[in-house]
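Supplementary Text 2. Reproducibility record for the structural model of the 123-residue chain.

All settings were left at their defaults, and a single model was retained for analysis rather than an ensemble. We include the record here because the model underlies the residue-level annotations in Supplementary Table 4.
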Amino acid sequence: MKKILVGLFCVMLSISSSGLAFAAGSGDSVETIRAKVEKYYASKKKVVVITNWGDKTRGHIVRVDANEFAIREKNGNEVVYEYSKVEKVNKSGGLSTGSIVGIAAGGVVGAIILFYLGKRLNS
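Retained model, structure tokens:
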């Protein structure tokens, strides 16, 4: 019985670890990147570009072409990227959804605690 459980555990561990490695290395498709670039260019959002080799660039998209786009960094340099060489394009700055939910939950819990402490002190 122990051998069967150990065998099942090893199989589950190997399947889950190979799935995690695949998910961690997968970037967005070229079409997805192109769509994000066009959306962020239209809304004039600051972006972070992550290349296939791991470099990160922050800035505003200043030019969008059929095969490439350009980012202007804070120091004024313009960097041109081909869509096929980019792994991800994301908005830069602001709070993530998880941060907003955490702050809101903390505020609600804090308000509840203050409400009950106020009732205890007044009675």
